[in-house]
Task: structure prediction
Amino acid sequence: MPRLFTALEIPRDAALSLSLLRGGLPGARWIDVENYHITLRFIGDVEGHVADEIANALDRVRRPSFTLTLSGVGAFGSRKPHSIYAGVAASPDLAALQAEIERICQRLGLPADPRKFVPHVTLARLRNSSADDVARYLSARGNFAAMPFRVGRFVLMSSRESVGGGPYIVEEAWPLAAAAEAGLPERLAGGSARMHRP
Result:
């Protein structure tokens, strides 16, 4: 069974801005540009019927579309940094969407995510990068900011077992604002009629 998570996709222009941050850090394994995303809720490996229940519940989310801005660069793992990320400027709409998805997951019996939600786009996984190298990299790129972009949908993504960083597949997508208000969930041809897997 693939690992599932809900996410926001990064549009091409913003992804291009992020790609300019690649390089200049020994021990970094850079994420492919097409795999950039903002994770809303990690769900993990679940049975097919649970995946269906989650997708059915997400059909009922009604939220407006909103604008997001990617801003700043940081690292996770203070003493031993393990990843580099681009930050996301504070957004009440993003926080409300994420909180609703979290409530849905908990109502369906998934354990609460113990980590505080910190919206970000992972840029690189680090292997034996020194804290000094990471500090130098961050100080050179700390003023990063991309043009704001419109978030028009959220998606359910899957990842196959790999060493992190993709490839990710959009299983299903739900529009925000106009189409959602009309009660028309968007279905993806590639997302299957409901992720029924052997």
Notes: Residues 47 and 180 are 27 Å apart (CA to CA). Helices lie at 12-19, 48-58, 92-107, 131-141, 178-181. The longest helix spans residues 92-107.
